[in-house]
Amino acid sequence: MTLTVGVLGYRFMGKAHANAMARLPMFFPDAPDVERGVLIGRDESALRAAADRLGFERTATDWREVVGEVDAFYNLGPNHVHAEPSIAALEAATPVLCEKPLANDLDGAERMAAAAADAEVPTAAAFNYRFVPALRYAKNLIEDGELGEIRHFRGRYLQDWLADPEAPWSWRNDEELAGSGALGDLGAHTVDLARFLVGDVERVSGHLRTFVDERPVEDEDAGPDETRSVTVDDAYSAQAELDGGAMATFEASRVAEGHKNDHTVEVHGSEGSLRFSLERLNELEVLRDGARGYETILITDAEDPYLDHWWPPGHVLGWEHTFVHENYAFLSAVASAASGTSRSDEAADAYRPNFADGLAVQRTLAAIEESHERGEWVDVDAGR
Ligand code: SOE
C-alpha cells in the first residue's frame, strides 16, 4: 500500500521530514511506500515553490480540506497551531505526527491527548532525539542493568542564536504563540529523554529567566525601528525527582554564547555512568564494570540501532538521520494499523513517543513554570 501524507508547514521541520521520507525507499526498503501528497500553507507562491523543492504532489491553503483525506497528517506548524488541526485529523481517524512541544499550553495538550485516546490510531510527538542510535544504545545499557540503580539524570540544551539582542523577534519569543521559550523549545526534548532513559518526572523546582525583553521586528511591513516584547524565557533550569527516586537536573538556554546545538545527557547509577553529546552524536561515553574512567564507544556498527540500514562502521551519521529513523518507525506503525495487522487498541501504542508522552512532557513543563511562579516545589501529575 502507498501512504499519502499531508504536511502542514514547509520551513525547517518541513524540510527535515520531507528529506526523511525521501530517504526511506533507498535505506529502509521494508518501509511503506509514501507519497508526499499535500503540502499545506498560507502563502500560495511560497507554498508552491516549497512543494516543488520538497517533492509534494499538490498544495492546499486550508488544512480542513486535507486532514480527513490523507493516510497520515504531519503538523509541523508553530506551537499555537498544533491543537486544532491535529484534533480534527484524529476525529477523522487520521494518524498524526506533531512537532514538539505538543502544544503551546497544557489545555491544548490535554485535548490533543484525549482526541488521540479516542481515535485509537498511531500518534507521534516528534521528539527526534529518541532516534539517535547512541541514545537507543544507552537505553539498552540502562535496561540491561549495566549502570545498576539509577541515581542521577542530568540534561542540558544550550544554543546561542538569541544571544545577540539584535537577533529578530519571532513567534518563538511570544507566550501566546509558543507557550514558552527555551523551556518548551529545548527543555521538552530533555524532559522526554529523561522519561525515555530513566522515568517519569514526579516533582520539580524551576527557575526561568528572560535576559532580552525586546527585539527588533524584521517583517517586510515593520517600521524601521519597530520592536516587539519578548514574553517567554531565554533560559530555564530545574531540579526534579524522577519516578523510582533518581535525582534530575534540567537546563536550557538560547543565549549561551559559543553553543550552537549542544544537547548533552548524563546518567549516573550505582554500577556506572554514561555521557552523550549531540555535537558528537555517533559516540557514547560509558563507565562500567568498575573501570577507572569512561570509555568512548563509536556507535556505528551494523548491530547498533538502525545502523544496519546505513554505511560501514565509522561512516558516521548526522542530525538528519534521526528524522529518517523517526519517520520509518511512525509510518511503519501507520501502515500496520491501516492494514489491520495491529488491533486498534494496540495502534495507539504502536509508536512511541505518542501524544500521551507529549502530554506527560507538557505537564512537566507546566509544573516547572508553576514552580517558578510560586517559588516552591510542584508535583507533576503525569497522568500515569
Ligand atoms: C530551536 O532552534 C530548534 O530548532 C528546536 O526547535 C528543535 O526542536 C531542536 O532539535 C533544534 O533547535
The total domain count is: 2
Main sheet summary:
9 strands, mixed
Q: Which ions and ligands are bound to the chains?
A: alpha-L-sorbopyranose
Strand arrangement, major sheet: 16-15-14-13-7-12-11-8-17
Structural class: alpha/beta
Shape: globular
Number of separate helices: 10
The CATH architecture of the largest domain: 2-Layer Sandwich
| Computed Rg | 21 Å
Question: Class of the largest domain, according to the CATH hierarchy?
Answer: Alpha Beta
* Residue windows where pLDDT falls under 50 for at least 5 positions: none
Textual characterization of the structure:
The chain has 384 residues and is of the alpha/beta class. The chain folds into two domains: 2-129 and 321-353, Rossmann fold; 133-280 and 282-316, Dihydrodipicolinate Reductase, domain 2 (2-Layer Sandwich), CATH 3.30.360. It has helices at 12-27, 44-54, 83-91, 106-119, 133-143, 175-178, 182-197, 319-338, 344-347, 355-374; strands at residues 2-8, 33-40, 58-60, 72-75, 96-99, 123-126, 150-158, 201-209, 214-216, 227-229, 235-242, 247-253, 262-269, 273-277, 283-287, 295-298, 378-379. The strands form three sheets. Strands 16-15-14-13-7-12-11-8-17 form a nine-stranded mixed beta sheet. Strand 13 (262-269) and strand 14 form a beta hairpin. Helix 1 (12-27) crosses helix 8 (319-338), helix 4 packs antiparallel against helix 10 (355-374) and helix 7 (182-197) crosses helix 10. The longest helix has 20 residues, at 319-338. The model has no long low-confidence stretch (mean pLDDT 96).
